[in-house]
C-alpha cells in the first residue's frame, strides 16, 4: 500500500507527505534544484504553471511532469514545453525532452509501459459526463462526472431543485447506478471518491450566502449507499480537500500546510481521476 | 627644462554629467593639456584616447549587484581636444584616459571622480512619449511613481529584489542596459509587454469557450435545465441550448491586460465565467430562444487567495492579488 503522497504545485514545489505519520516529511523546489534547472523560476511575474501533471512510474522510481521553458509567455502569447523526469525518493533531474513549441496550452501527458505519450491540448478531450452505455433504461442521462477510480464514477445527478445536490456512483462493470441517500447538504466540489471507488466522502456545507464547510464529514458506502462514518473535523473548515489515501486518511491543505483526518477504513491503490478545471495541485501516491 | 607632462580638463568641468531628459548622453569635450613640451613638436603629436562608463550598483538599493557598461571607446586624435562620442545611454563612473608620445616619452593622464547620472522625465515628456492608454499610464505610475531613477546616480530597482528596473519596472526578461538608463527604452519595453499581454487577453474569451472546464459547465447547465423541465411536468424534453460566452468589453480587456502585466500566475485570470451558488453556469436566455449568454465575473481578492491556497501556491508566488484595483486607483497623466 503506497504510504507517501507527493504533491506537485503549479509553482514547482514538490511536497512529500507521510500518510502513516500524518506529516510533511520533505519539500523540494524544482525550480531551484542544483545542476541544470529544468523548471523556470517562479520569482517575479509568471504566467500559467511551472509544472503540469505529475505521473508516477513505480518501476522506474521516477515521476514525470510537463514544464514550460519560459516562466512568462513569449511575445506571441505562447510557450515551449518539455517533459521532465525526476527520480524518487531523492529528487534528481533524470531527463528533459522537448514536448511542444509555440503552444498556447501545455500538451497532455500519459505514461504507460510503452513510454510517454503526448497529446496536443486542442486534441485532448477528457470526458465531463458519464455515458450510461449498457445500463438499465431510464438511468440518469444528464450528469456531471465528478471523479472516477477503478470501475466506479462519482456523478452529480440533476433534479428539479439545483440547490439539492444529488450524487450517485456508477459501477461500470456491474452496470448499476447507486444513488446516495440522505446525504448532508453539500456541493459537487465537496464530494470525493475514495481510491477504487468503494466509498464517497461528503463534506457538509452551509448554503448561505455561499457554500462554507461545517467540518462535518460523512463517509458513504458506494455499493449500499449506507452512511458508514460521520466525523467532525473543525480544522478542515479553512482547508481544501486534497486526496484520500489508500490507508484511509482524508488529506487537507491550505497553501503549504497539511492536515490528516482518519476515515477508519482502508481502500485500494487505484488512483482517483478528476476532470480538468478543478483547483487541485498535482498528486500521486508512491511507496518510497 | 622641467619634465613634460599632460593633464586633462573637461568642458563642462564636471564632475557630474547628466543624461538629458530626452535620454541623450551629455556632450563632453576632453582636453589634454601638455606642459613643458616644445611648441615645435605640437603639430606632430597623436593623442590616444580611451573612455569607459561603468555602473557598479554597490551604493544603489535593491540593485542586486547589477553592472552596466558603455562599450569602451578608443580613438586617436591629432589635436588635444576630444569630443567623447558616446553611442549608448549609460550612467556610472566615467573614466577618460589619454596618452601621447613626445619623443621617447609617453605621457599619460586619467580622469578621476567623474560620473554620468540620470534624469527623470517630466510629466510633459512622458505625455509626449507614452501610449495614449489611460490604463497603461496608471500602471506606470503604480510601478515606478513615473521615475526611472531613485536618485541621479541610481536607477530605480524594484523593492522585491528581483532586478526589476525603471519606469515600467521591467523584470522578466532581464532588462537590458538601455532599459536601465534610458527611460524611453524602458517605456518601449513596457509598451511592448503591454501590447503582448493585451493580445493574449483579447484571445482569452475564445480560448475559454473551447476549454474543457467551460464545456463541462455548459453541459451541466443543460442537464440541469432538462431535469428541471422534466420535474416540472413538461412532456417535451428541454433540448440543450447553445451558450455564448461574450468577448471582453473594452473595460474588461483593460483589466485582464493589467492582470497579465502582473502575471497570470497559476493560470488565474481577472475574470471567470460566473456560476451560481450551486455551481451552475449563470446564463441569460430570452423567452423562447434556443441560445443563451453566459457572463464574466471578476474574482475578488479573497477569491484569488482562496484559489491560490487551494492550489497550494506559496504566498510569494501569487503576484499582487490586488494589482488591478491598485492600478485603477492611480491617476493617469
Descriptive labels:
heterodimer; A: 288 residues; mainly beta; four-stranded antiparallel β-sheet; globular; B: 333 residues; alpha+beta; seven-stranded mixed β-sheet; three-stranded antiparallel β-sheet
How does this structure look, described?
The complex is a heterodimer of chains A (288) and B (333). Chain A is mainly β and 288 residues long. Helices cover 0% and strands 46% of the residues of chain A. Chain A has strands spanning 4-8, 13-18, 23-29, 52-57, 62-68, 79-87, 93-103, 108-112, 115-119, 143-149, 152-157, 166-171, 176-179, 191-193, 199-206, 212-221, 227-232, 240-244, 249-254, 257-262, 282-286. In chain A, the strands form 6 sheets. A 4-stranded antiparallel sheet of chain A has the order 3-2-1-21, with no helix packed on it. Chain A starts with a strand and ends with a strand. Chain B has 333 residues and is α+β, with helices and mostly antiparallel strands. Chain B is built from 9 helices and 17 strands. Chain B starts with a strand and ends in a 5-residue tail after the last helix. Chains A and B meet through loops of A and helix 4, helix 6 and helix 8 of B.
